């Protein structure tokens, strides 16, 4: 039985991603490589002032005191956190592809279409879904001001911020899976009447020059075991337009 609400769930994620970019403007890119939490600064304490009428303090001349020699002190430096190692987890049985490719109308990317899947749209992004409606995927393009290479943590943060306005969206830890590429698992919830149905999926963020391509795969509980197979197939087909 087809689950049309999964389609609406992904449309909601894509619209949320678009609204997030419109709302944040260029400031979205300025903070990458730093924490998403705003750093707060403590107010500078004011020097105490003497109450009115108080005599001004007098400074008495004192013989200079020679301090005792002390051993030089060294400040320990915390080790830098290295970038996570590239992890490759091959899947033995990827999902089959059709002979067709989806090509972005603006020539920013292309991606394979899984065999038997239907192609639609969620806003300006493609929405490619299984006939059952239990698994679907989309690609969102995040444009940057320059082609400066982003760190793995910055790519992961970008991918999370693109979709974190979705219903019950909870991202997992990220892994670096290639040059300028990270993947992460995520979970969500799909509200059907008074019941909440769990949703699971995977995200791949890959930098291509000034663009970052973000592939999101989503599945209901029925096809949750197909997510890794879908990612194994689709990751190899997500490229710039040839």
Task: Walk me through this protein's architecture.
With 242 residues, this protein is an alpha+beta fold. It has four helices and nine strands. It has helices spanning 4-24, 27-30, 152-163, 227-234; strands at residues 97-103, 110-114, 118-122, 125-129, 135-143, 170-178, 181-192, 195-208, 211-220. It has a seven-stranded antiparallel beta sheet with strand order 3-4-5-9-8-7-6, with helices on both faces. The longest helix is centred in the first third of the chain and has 21 residues, at 4-24. The radius of gyration is 26 Å and the shape is globular. The two termini are 37 Å apart. The model is unreliable at 19-48, 56-62 and 74-84 (pLDDT under 50).
Write the layout of secondary structure elements.
Layout (H helix, E strand, L loop, with lengths): L3 H21 L2 H4 L66 E7 L6 E5 L3 E5 L2 E5 L5 E9 L8 H12 L6 E9 L2 E12 L2 E14 L2 E10 L6 H8 L8
Quaternary structure classification: single chain
Structural class by SSE content:
alpha+beta
Major pleated sheet: 7 strands, antiparallel
| Average pLDDT for all residues | 75
Described by the principal axes of the CA atoms, the overall outline is globular
């Amino acid at each position: 039985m087809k689950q049309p609400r999964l389609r609406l769930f992904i449309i909601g994620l894509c619209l949320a991603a678009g609204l997030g970019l419109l709302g944040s403007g260029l400031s979205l890119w300025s903070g990458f490589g730093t924490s998403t939490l705003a750093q707060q600064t403590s107010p500078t304490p004011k020097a105490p002032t003497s109450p009115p009428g108080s005599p001004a303090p007098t400074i008495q001349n004192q013989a200079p005191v020679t301090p005792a020699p002390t051993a030089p002190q060294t400040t320990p430096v915390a080790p830098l956190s290295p970038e996570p190692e590239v992890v490759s987890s091959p899947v033995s049985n990827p999902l089959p592809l059709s002979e067709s490719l989806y090509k972005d109308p603006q020539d920013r990317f292309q991606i394979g279409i899984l065999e038997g899947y239907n192609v639609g749209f969620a806003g300006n992004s493609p929405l490619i879904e299984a006939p059952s409606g239990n698994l679907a995927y989309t690609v969102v393009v995040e444009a940057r001001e320059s082609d400066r290479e982003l760190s793995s943590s910055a790519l992961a943060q970008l991918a999370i911020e693109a979709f974190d306005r979705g219903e019950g969206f909870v991202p997992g830890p990220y892994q670096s899976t290639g040059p300028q590429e990270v993947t992460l698992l995520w979970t969500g919830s799909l509200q059907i009447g008074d019941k909440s149905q769990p949703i699971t999926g995977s995200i791949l963020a890959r930098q291509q020059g000034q663009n970052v391509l973000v592939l999101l795969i989503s599945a209901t509980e029925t096809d949750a075991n197909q997510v890794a197979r879908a990612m194994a197939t689709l990751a190899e087909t997500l490229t710039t337009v040839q």
